[in-house]
Amino acid sequence: MGEFRLSEVLIVLSDAYFRQSVPDVLTTPRALAGLEQVTRFGSRSRLARGWRPEVMQWTGRPDLADEAPATVAAAAFTAIAAGAPSSPIPRACWIATPVHLIASLTSVHLDRRGLLRLRESDAVTLVEDFRTAFEGSDFQMFAHRGELLLVGPPLTARTLEPSRALGMSLEEAVPEGSDAARLRRLIAEMEMWLHGHALNTTREQRRELHISSLWPWGGGSLGGCAPRAMDEAGRDQSRTTLDARARVAVFGPDAYLHGVAAVSEASLHDLPREIAPVLGYSSAARLCVRIEIGSMLQTHPGWTVLEAFTQIDERFIAPAVRALQAGSVSRLDLLANDVRFSVRGVDRLKRWRRVRPGLSGLLS
C-alpha cells in the first residue's frame, strides 16, 4: 500500500446518546475545547438512521448503507462459511453484545459501564460452551475478534441497540413483534446459563464486570453482505464509488466495523490511546476512529461521564481540531447523539456562531 495524504478524519462517539431528561450531565460547566470548536463551527445535520450507515457510505459502500448491522457484521465472521452446515432454510443473525445489568429495588437497567468488550479467548470460550448448553436449539453462536454473532431462524422481532438503552429500565427495551416472545425466552435462558458460568468467576478474579446476559440486536439476514470479491490479480471487484487511490483506515473494536472492513477496502486497527499517532498514519487518506465512553469508564471506575469526555476531548477531538486548523487535515466529522458535525478549515472564520459549553452542543 502506498502513501497517501491524509485528508479526512471521522470520529464516532458510538455510545454518546443523551436524552433530554438528563440536562445536568449536558450543561455542567467543563472545558472541552475540541468539542466546543466542533459544535460551534461545524455544519450540523441529523442522523435519521444512526452512525453506522454514515460510516458505510464514508468507506465507499453506499450500496450497503441500508443493510442491517448484523448482516454487515456477519461478513467478517468467516467461521460461519467455513464451519456452519449449509441449509436451504433462510437464516437470520443478530449481534450479541455482552452486558452487565444493574438491579435496583424497582427495576433492572443498563448503565454506561454495562456494555462489555470480551477478550478474544473469552468469546471463544462462550461460543464453545453455547454449542453444548444450547445443543438441539435452533440457535448457533460464532466469535470473531472478541465479538459475538447469534444465528437462528428468521424471527419478526424488533430489537433496540443496547447503547440506546443506557439508563433505561429493561422493561422499556425488550424485543417487540410477533416473534419477540421467542427471542425474549432465549435471552432469559442465556441469563440463567451465564449466572454461574465459570467465565464470570474468572472475570471477577480479574476484577472485570460479570456478564449478566447477551443482548441480541441489529437483526438481519445471514449472507446478505458478501466479503469483497477479488479477481485473479487480487484487485477488488466490489467497490463502486470510492476512488481506488483513496484508502480508509478504521480504528476501534466493533462487530459492525469488522464487517465494514470485510466488504470494503478499509483496514481495521485497534483503538490507540490517543489520536496523534493515527494522524500520522501515512497509508490512508481517510481515517475513522470509533470511541466508547463506556470502555473508558470501565478502565477508570471512579470517573464520571464528564471526566471520561474530558479525556476523549484531550486525546482525540482537540488534536484533530488542531490538525484541521494547521491544514494537515481538510475535513473533520464528528458523529454523536444522532447528530453529525462536519468542519472544514475555513469554518473557523464563522465567529458569529455562539459557543455551546460542555456537552450541551450534542443536544439534538
State the strand order across the main sheet: 2-12-11-1-10-8-9
Form type: globular
**SSE string:** EHHEHHHEEHEEHHEEHEHEHHEE
Helix content estimate: 25-40%
Tell me the number of helical segments per DSSP (H or I, 4 or more residues long): 12
**Ends: how far apart?**
40 Å
Strand content: 15-25%
Q: State the major sheet.
A: 7 strands, mixed
User: Uncertain segments of ≥5 residues (pLDDT<50)?
Assistant: 230-245
The whole-number mean of residue pLDDT values reads 85
Secondary-structure content class: alpha/beta
Radius of gyration: 21 Å
Count of β-strands: 12
SSE inventory with pairings:
Elements: E1 8-13, H1 23-27, H2 33-41, E2 43-46, H3 51-58, H4 69-74, H5 78-83, E3 92-103, E4 108-115, H6 120-133, E5 140-144, E6 147-152, H7 180-195, H8 198-205, E7 213-221, E8 248-251, H9 255-263, E9 267-269, H10 276-279, E10 286-291, H11 293-299, H12 305-326, E11 331-336, E12 339-344
Parallel strand pairs: 1-10, 1-11, 8-9, 8-10
Antiparallel strand pairs: 2-12, 3-4, 3-6, 3-7, 5-6, 11-12
